[in-house]
Amino acid sequence: MSEGDSAGESIHGKPSAIGNFFKRLGQIYQSWLDKSTPFSAVRWAVTLLLTAIYMIRVYILQGWYIVTYALGIYHLNLFIAFLSPKVDPSLLDDPDEGPALPTKQNEEFRPFIRRLPEFKFWHSATKGIIVAMICTFFEAFNVPVFWPILVMYFIMLFCITMKRQIKHMIKYRYLPFTHGKRTYRGKEDTAKTFAS
Protein backbone atom coordinates (compact mmCIF):
# COMPACT_ATOMS: atom_id res chain seq x y z
CA MET A 1 0.00 0.00 0.00
CA SER A 2 1.33 3.42 -0.85
CA GLU A 3 1.56 6.27 1.62
CA GLY A 4 -1.49 8.09 0.15
CA ASP A 5 -3.84 5.10 0.47
CA SER A 6 -6.51 5.34 3.13
CA ALA A 7 -7.46 2.61 5.59
CA GLY A 8 -10.72 1.93 3.73
CA GLU A 9 -8.93 0.90 0.51
CA SER A 10 -8.16 -2.66 -0.51
CA ILE A 11 -4.74 -3.99 -1.51
CA HIS A 12 -5.35 -3.08 -5.16
CA GLY A 13 -5.92 0.62 -4.38
CA LYS A 14 -9.69 0.60 -4.95
CA PRO A 15 -12.05 1.55 -2.12
CA SER A 16 -13.44 -1.47 -0.28
CA ALA A 17 -17.19 -2.11 -0.13
CA ILE A 18 -17.15 -1.95 3.68
CA GLY A 19 -15.27 1.35 3.64
CA ASN A 20 -17.73 2.81 1.12
CA PHE A 21 -20.69 1.56 3.18
CA PHE A 22 -19.49 3.23 6.39
CA LYS A 23 -18.50 6.39 4.53
CA ARG A 24 -21.99 6.61 2.99
CA LEU A 25 -23.59 5.86 6.38
CA GLY A 26 -21.57 8.69 7.93
CA GLN A 27 -22.66 11.08 5.19
CA ILE A 28 -26.35 10.21 5.71
CA TYR A 29 -25.98 10.65 9.47
CA GLN A 30 -24.27 14.04 9.02
CA SER A 31 -26.98 15.10 6.55
CA TRP A 32 -29.71 14.34 9.10
CA LEU A 33 -27.77 16.23 11.79
CA ASP A 34 -27.44 19.24 9.48
CA LYS A 35 -31.16 19.20 8.69
CA SER A 36 -32.06 19.05 12.40
CA THR A 37 -29.92 22.07 13.38
CA PRO A 38 -32.63 24.79 13.21
CA PHE A 39 -35.22 22.71 15.10
CA SER A 40 -33.85 22.95 18.64
CA ALA A 41 -37.22 22.50 20.38
CA VAL A 42 -37.95 19.29 18.43
CA ARG A 43 -34.42 17.98 19.05
CA TRP A 44 -34.70 18.54 22.81
CA ALA A 45 -38.21 17.05 22.88
CA VAL A 46 -36.85 13.86 21.29
CA THR A 47 -34.01 13.80 23.83
CA LEU A 48 -36.46 14.22 26.73
CA LEU A 49 -38.60 11.41 25.28
CA LEU A 50 -35.51 9.15 25.09
CA THR A 51 -34.67 10.08 28.69
CA ALA A 52 -38.20 9.17 29.83
CA ILE A 53 -38.03 5.83 27.99
CA TYR A 54 -34.63 5.13 29.58
CA MET A 55 -35.88 6.00 33.08
CA ILE A 56 -38.98 3.82 32.66
CA ARG A 57 -36.78 0.95 31.48
CA VAL A 58 -34.45 1.28 34.49
CA TYR A 59 -37.46 1.49 36.85
CA ILE A 60 -39.10 -1.62 35.38
CA LEU A 61 -35.86 -3.64 35.32
CA GLN A 62 -34.85 -2.46 38.82
CA GLY A 63 -31.16 -2.32 37.92
CA TRP A 64 -28.37 -0.60 36.00
CA TYR A 65 -28.09 2.12 38.66
CA ILE A 66 -24.34 2.55 38.07
CA VAL A 67 -25.02 3.19 34.36
CA THR A 68 -27.70 5.74 35.30
CA TYR A 69 -25.33 7.41 37.78
CA ALA A 70 -22.58 7.60 35.13
CA LEU A 71 -25.09 9.09 32.67
CA GLY A 72 -26.09 11.70 35.26
CA ILE A 73 -22.46 12.69 35.89
CA TYR A 74 -21.85 12.88 32.13
CA HIS A 75 -24.89 15.13 31.65
CA LEU A 76 -23.79 17.31 34.59
CA ASN A 77 -20.37 17.82 32.99
CA LEU A 78 -22.00 18.71 29.67
CA PHE A 79 -24.31 21.19 31.42
CA ILE A 80 -21.41 22.90 33.22
CA ALA A 81 -19.53 23.22 29.91
CA PHE A 82 -22.71 24.66 28.36
CA LEU A 83 -22.91 27.32 31.11
CA SER A 84 -19.20 28.20 30.98
CA PRO A 85 -17.66 30.85 28.72
CA LYS A 86 -15.39 29.69 25.92
CA VAL A 87 -12.51 31.72 27.34
CA ASP A 88 -12.46 31.44 31.13
CA PRO A 89 -11.73 34.92 32.56
CA SER A 90 -10.02 33.40 35.62
CA LEU A 91 -7.35 31.81 33.41
CA LEU A 92 -6.36 34.99 31.54
CA ASP A 93 -3.17 36.75 32.67
CA ASP A 94 -4.23 39.99 31.00
CA PRO A 95 -7.95 40.91 31.18
CA ASP A 96 -7.70 42.62 27.76
CA GLU A 97 -6.54 39.36 26.18
CA GLY A 98 -9.17 37.37 24.24
CA PRO A 99 -12.90 38.04 23.88
CA ALA A 100 -13.82 39.68 27.19
CA LEU A 101 -17.21 39.68 28.82
CA PRO A 102 -18.97 43.05 29.25
CA THR A 103 -18.68 44.18 32.86
CA LYS A 104 -20.55 47.52 32.84
CA GLN A 105 -24.14 48.41 31.97
CA ASN A 106 -23.20 50.86 29.22
CA GLU A 107 -20.63 48.60 27.51
CA GLU A 108 -21.30 47.27 24.04
CA PHE A 109 -23.37 44.07 23.98
CA ARG A 110 -21.28 41.03 23.20
CA PRO A 111 -23.04 37.69 22.90
CA PHE A 112 -22.07 34.97 25.33
CA ILE A 113 -19.82 32.43 23.60
CA ARG A 114 -20.16 29.05 25.25
CA ARG A 115 -17.45 26.48 25.79
CA LEU A 116 -19.95 23.85 24.59
CA PRO A 117 -22.45 25.14 21.99
CA GLU A 118 -26.11 24.15 22.28
CA PHE A 119 -26.05 21.78 19.29
CA LYS A 120 -23.00 19.87 20.56
CA PHE A 121 -24.57 19.78 24.03
CA TRP A 122 -27.73 18.22 22.59
CA HIS A 123 -25.81 15.80 20.37
CA SER A 124 -23.55 14.58 23.19
CA ALA A 125 -26.45 14.30 25.66
CA THR A 126 -28.51 12.26 23.19
CA LYS A 127 -25.60 9.97 22.35
CA GLY A 128 -25.04 9.44 26.09
CA ILE A 129 -28.66 8.37 26.58
CA ILE A 130 -28.47 5.97 23.62
CA VAL A 131 -25.24 4.41 24.94
CA ALA A 132 -26.78 4.04 28.42
CA MET A 133 -29.87 2.45 26.86
CA ILE A 134 -27.67 -0.06 25.00
CA CYS A 135 -25.84 -0.86 28.26
CA THR A 136 -29.14 -1.92 29.85
CA PHE A 137 -29.28 -4.86 27.43
CA PHE A 138 -26.09 -6.36 28.90
CA GLU A 139 -26.13 -7.97 32.33
CA ALA A 140 -22.41 -7.23 32.81
CA PHE A 141 -23.27 -3.55 33.41
CA ASN A 142 -25.85 -4.38 36.08
CA VAL A 143 -23.59 -3.98 39.11
CA PRO A 144 -25.51 -4.50 42.39
CA VAL A 145 -25.44 -1.29 44.41
CA PHE A 146 -27.58 0.44 47.03
CA TRP A 147 -29.11 3.11 44.79
CA PRO A 148 -30.20 5.68 47.44
CA ILE A 149 -26.52 6.33 48.20
CA LEU A 150 -25.89 7.09 44.51
CA VAL A 151 -28.87 9.46 44.42
CA MET A 152 -27.66 11.29 47.56
CA TYR A 153 -24.12 11.51 46.22
CA PHE A 154 -25.35 12.83 42.85
CA ILE A 155 -27.54 15.49 44.52
CA MET A 156 -24.60 16.56 46.70
CA LEU A 157 -22.26 16.69 43.69
CA PHE A 158 -24.83 18.65 41.66
CA CYS A 159 -25.29 21.23 44.44
CA ILE A 160 -21.55 21.70 45.00
CA THR A 161 -20.83 22.00 41.27
CA MET A 162 -23.67 24.45 40.61
CA LYS A 163 -22.71 26.55 43.65
CA ARG A 164 -19.16 26.84 42.29
CA GLN A 165 -20.48 27.71 38.81
CA ILE A 166 -22.86 30.38 40.15
CA LYS A 167 -20.05 31.91 42.24
CA HIS A 168 -17.91 32.05 39.08
CA MET A 169 -20.77 33.74 37.18
CA ILE A 170 -21.20 36.32 39.96
CA LYS A 171 -17.46 36.98 40.31
CA TYR A 172 -16.91 37.59 36.58
CA ARG A 173 -20.38 39.15 36.07
CA TYR A 174 -21.71 37.14 33.16
CA LEU A 175 -25.03 35.54 32.37
CA PRO A 176 -24.88 32.44 30.13
CA PHE A 177 -28.17 33.26 28.39
CA THR A 178 -28.81 35.95 25.80
CA HIS A 179 -32.60 35.93 26.34
CA GLY A 180 -33.79 39.20 27.83
CA LYS A 181 -30.65 41.19 27.05
CA ARG A 182 -30.78 44.55 25.32
CA THR A 183 -31.21 44.46 21.53
CA TYR A 184 -30.41 47.21 19.08
CA ARG A 185 -32.60 48.37 16.23
CA GLY A 186 -31.37 48.34 12.65
CA LYS A 187 -31.23 51.36 10.33
CA GLU A 188 -34.73 50.62 8.97
CA ASP A 189 -36.27 50.81 12.45
CA THR A 190 -34.53 54.07 13.37
CA ALA A 191 -35.54 55.67 10.08
CA LYS A 192 -39.20 54.89 10.83
CA THR A 193 -38.82 56.38 14.31
CA PHE A 194 -37.42 59.69 12.98
CA ALA A 195 -40.09 59.89 10.25
CA SER A 196 -42.98 59.75 12.74
Automatic annotation (TrEMBL):
Gene Ontology BP terms: protein retention in ER lumen; retrograde vesicle-mediated transport, Golgi to endoplasmic reticulum
Any single Gene Ontology cellular-component annotation: Golgi membrane
Transmembrane is among the record's keywords: yes
InterPro entries, A to Z: Rer1
Alphabetical UniProt keywords: Membrane, Transmembrane, Transmembrane helix
Domain of life (superkingdom): Eukaryota
Major localisation: membrane
Transmembrane annotation, as ranges: 41-60, 66-83, 145-162
Membrane topology type: Multi-pass membrane protein
Job of this protein: Involved in the retrieval of endoplasmic reticulum membrane proteins from the early Golgi compartment.
Recorded family membership: Belongs to the RER1 family.
The protein's name: Protein RER1
